[in-house]
Structures are given as structure tokens and as C-alpha cells.
Design brief:
Length: 214
């Protein structure tokens, strides 16, 4: 990785899951607890299952996860999963990627930082509060706020904060597609959950490599 992107951007927008932390094990625990409260969900919820749908819009996750449920059952199960997810994460959190905090501090001194994720309301706040990172981020937006696609949430952040040359950092094809549709270049985190067949402005194998790039 030799790309030099210094002085090319005025801000950085991050994806959360697979980019800043990995919470799949504890999310699986929470969703499995929800599954045990109802009698109509067939499959156990494993870490592998959660990781396979990470990055999708929160409603779409449950459409894919339990397509055989009635809309009412799916809504109830999703609400239980969301409730237990925040309860578990508020206690146990997720695994921060190596050198995350020191790298964010470095970047914060040079750029305004933001988060845009397809998660439910309260999830980004849990990440920030639990890890005492609120002071490093100027703003954030999630699917749960307006139930709109990620590209539109990226656009909203760009417009709300008057960003002229932002860059997005994400780890899935969905991130690539969303950033591209929003007109924002993307740095692809290859250590995360997905791959891309697109052409990001750079690829990183470790979060700390952002200090070399930016």
C-alpha cells in the first residue's frame, strides 16, 4: 500500500461493524436469547450467521434471517433482538480492532470524524459511550434514525456538516456501493467482513495504516 492521500480529503466517515469493531459474538448471544423467548424461530443464531448479514439495513437483516415468519412475528422478533442486543453490548461491547484508539486520536487531530452505519438507533451511541470515544466524532447517522439507505445517510452527513471532500472507510461491497452512490470515495478495510469488486481509492489490511495514508 503506497497510495498517498494526505491533504486530499477534509473529513472521514467510518462504517462501524467490521471497520471499527467486531461485535458479532455478543450480538449472536443477544439474538439467541431473543430466539429462546419465542417458539417460531427455527434456527439457532450463531456468530457466523450474524457476520454473514452484517452491513445490511437492520430491517433487511430480519427479512433474510427469518423469511418464513409473518410480518407480525418478524417485527416482534426483531424488536426482541434489538432490545437484547443493546443490553448485551452495553455490558460486554465488542472487540476493537488493533490500534483503533491511537489511530482515531491521530486522525481526529487532522480531520472531523463521522460514523454512518446500517444499525439500529442506540448502537453507535453504545459503541461511543462504552469505549469513551464520543469526543473523537463530530457526528453520526444510522439506518434506525430515518429507515433510509446508507448512501442517503452518507449524503445527509455530507450536507449537514458541509463536507467538501469526504472519504468513507468501510469493509463490504454494500459500503462500496453506498459510498459510490453518494459520490464519496472509499478506502476499503480488507481486514473486515467482506470483499469488493470495485476500485476503492486505497485498501488497508490494518486500521493503523490510515495514519500512513491520511
Amino acid at each position: 500500500m503506497t497510495t498517498d492521500l494526505k491533504n486530499k480529503f477534509d473529513s472521514i466517515i467510518f462504517d462501524l461493524d467490521g471497520t471499527l469493531w467486531n461485535s458479532t459474538a455478543n450480538v449472536a448471544t443477544a439474538w439467541q436469547k431473543a430466539k429462546q423467548e419465542v417458539d417460531y424461530v427455527k434456527e439457532d443464531i450463531t456468530r457466523e450467521v450474524v457476520q454473514s448479514i452484517t452491513g445490511m439495513a437492520y430491517d433487511a437483516i430480519f427479512d433474510k434471517l427469518v423469511p418464513y415468519l409473518t410480518p407480525e412475528q418478524r417485527k416482534k422478533f426483531q424488536a426482541l433482538c434489538a432490545k437484547y442486543e443493546l443490553e448485551v453490548l452495553n455490558t460486554k461491547g465488542g472487540d476493537l480492532y488493533p490500534d483503533l484508539v491511537s489511530t482515531l486520536i491521530y486522525l481526529h487531530e487532522r480531520y472531523p470524524l463521522f460514523i454512518v452505519s446500517n444499525c439500529q438507533c442506540g448502537y453507535i451511541e453504545t459503541f461511543l459511550t462504552l469505549n469513551e470515544l464520543e469526543y473523537l466524532f463530530k457526528g453520526h447517522q444510522c439506518y434506525g434514525t430515518k429507515s433510509q439507505p446508507k448512501f442517503q445517510n452518507i449524503i445527509d452527513v455530507v450536507q449537514d456538516f458541509d463536507l467538501k471532500h469526504p472519504v468513507y472507510v468501510g469493509d463490504t461491497q454494500g459500503d462500496y456501493d453506498s459510498a459510490t452512490k453518494a459520490g464519496v470515495p472509499i478506502i476499503f478495510a480488507e481486514y473486515g467482513f467482506g470483499t469488493t469488486n470495485g476500485e476503492p481509492v486505497a485498501r488497508i489490511q490494518h486500521f493503523k495504516q490510515l495514519t500512513e495514508l491520511l
